[in-house]
Amino acid sequence: ERMWPRVWQFAAREEELPEPRDSVVYELGDKSFLLVRQDDGSIRAFYNVCLHRGRKLRLKNGKVNDLRCPYHAFTWNNDGSLKNIPCRWDFKHLEGQDMSLPEVQVGTWGGYVFIKEEPGGISLEDYLAPLPQHFVDWGPDECYTVKWGAKVLKANWKVCMEAFIEA
Question: What is the pTM of this model?
Fold first, then answer.
């Protein structure tokens, strides 16, 4: 509660979102975020949750024409603005409310996409300093992800982390 909303989190690589309407789901503990490449080439990130019933809008990465909740089919445009509420007459209590998806900050560096929940605070550039200067000759923006891998270990996470810290 006190740390993760205030710090920049690596959420994706830009090559995972090469074209407009490409999306990536990023999970952080019990929170889920949805990154979407916009028509203008920018990337926006939203809480991956329907504002009506709290259901996740997306469960996997991929191309999206819009963001539709599988429960009642509330639908948002890829920019987070409300597109449609089916059977709107059943939801009169929502009239006049801002039903745009809550957005989080997005920053990019070297092909990496970062998000931060809490508005304001330290910029991505300041947060990463001095790493961008250190890696200027390495060309991280020219790198790309070849494969993702994960394994669940029945062990103390601190011991596992320490064992692989050299990598």
Answer: 0.85
Instruction: Tell me which residue of 120, 53, 51 sits closest to 80, measured CA to CA.
Output: 51
And the tokens for 22? 């490409």
Query: What tokens does 44 get?
Result: 């926006």
CB atoms within 10 A of CB 23: 23
Q: Which two tokens stand for residue 21?
A: 């309407």
One-letter amino acid of 30? D
Q: Quick check: 67 and 34 in contact, CB under 8 A?
A: yes
| Bridge partners of residue 66, in order along the sequence | none
- Strands (E) located in 14-130: 22-28, 31-37, 43-47, 62-63, 67-68, 75-76, 82-84, 103-109, 112-116
Q: Which amino acid is at 62?
A: G
Q: Is the previous residue joined to 130 through a cis bond, with omega within 30 degrees of 0?
A: yes
Write the pLDDT tens digit of every residue in 55-92.
999 999 999 999 999 998 999 999 999 999 988 788 87
- Ramachandran quadrant class, 62 (left: phi over 0; alpha: psi -120 to 50; beta: rest): left
Q: Which residues pair with 45 in a beta bridge?
A: 35, 104
Using CA atoms, how far residue 72 sits from 46, 50, 75, 77, 104, in Å, is 19, 9, 9, 16, 24
